[in-house]
């Protein structure tokens, strides 16, 4: 029971990132780039401190580091840019669907043998994304914000694929966060100097960004990496199916977001497709 509760807590933390980001940007108290930078910096401090306390040192190099840092950078800033004009639940669904499509494509390109049911699941998930983004009916999301979230999903997919190469996942996650935060800080300073990003952040928006980075990202990732060795891979994949649902429920309760028929159908297709891909089918019994 304790393990189930910890998994549920981790999925809630992942979904909370969508709620915190959307709430901060909707308030107008901070811009998307600054939110992403503060999230990276606070996450880097938290994960870096955890690794230093446990291991005494933080190694920034390692296999797959370039892909990991690039993927995390794309995810953080694409995620923030998308939530400047997108509901929390819708964004989480787009992100989740694109992550699965990216990881599926990466597996195929890497020469992995893909069974028929995973092709079927990928087709269903992709169909759900197409339906969600198809123009018309007044329910389709803004294409620029949708494109930003798809870019974020692509980045997180790359980050996840690169994570498979890590011998020490938690230390690797900390190194990726520290390096991405350093790059993000350079981008932030350049945009402030160029007048692209203005100051004047509200205290509440800054608090939401730090909470997202240090707690629901930093501690959330650390807890997830600690749980992964204790649960089967298929269970881990299925558990993540709950993230868009939790984000959608949270958006309705805390942000006053509406549930549409279009979103519901797209969610069923995307989550159903991923479930078909990751849930093991029982073997056929011999006649």
Regions with pLDDT < 50 over 5+ consecutive residues?
A: none
Number of strands: 0
Number of domains: 1
Helix content: over 70%
Distance between the termini: 38 Å
State mean pLDDT (0 to 100 scale): 87
Largest sheet, if any? none
Structural class, by secondary structure, is mainly alpha
In percent, how much strand structure appears in the residues? under 5%
Number of discrete helical segments: 11
Radius of gyration: 19 Å
Estimate the global geometry from the Cα principal axes.
globular
Order of secondary-structure elements: HHHHHHHHHHH
Written description of the protein model:
- This protein is mostly helical.
- It has one domain (2-278).
- It has helices at residues 2-26, 32-55, 65-82, 88-109, 116-133, 143-163, 169-193, 203-227, 233-239, 242-254, 261-278.
- It is globular, with a radius of gyration of 19 Å.
- The mean pLDDT is 87.
Secondary-structure map:
Blueprint: H1 2-26, H2 32-55, H3 65-82, H4 88-109, H5 116-133, H6 143-163, H7 169-193, H8 203-227, H9 233-239, H10 242-254, H11 261-278
Helix pairs in contact: 1-4, 1-8, 1-10, 2-3, 2-7, 2-8, 3-6, 3-7, 4-5, 4-6, 4-10, 4-11, 5-11, 7-8
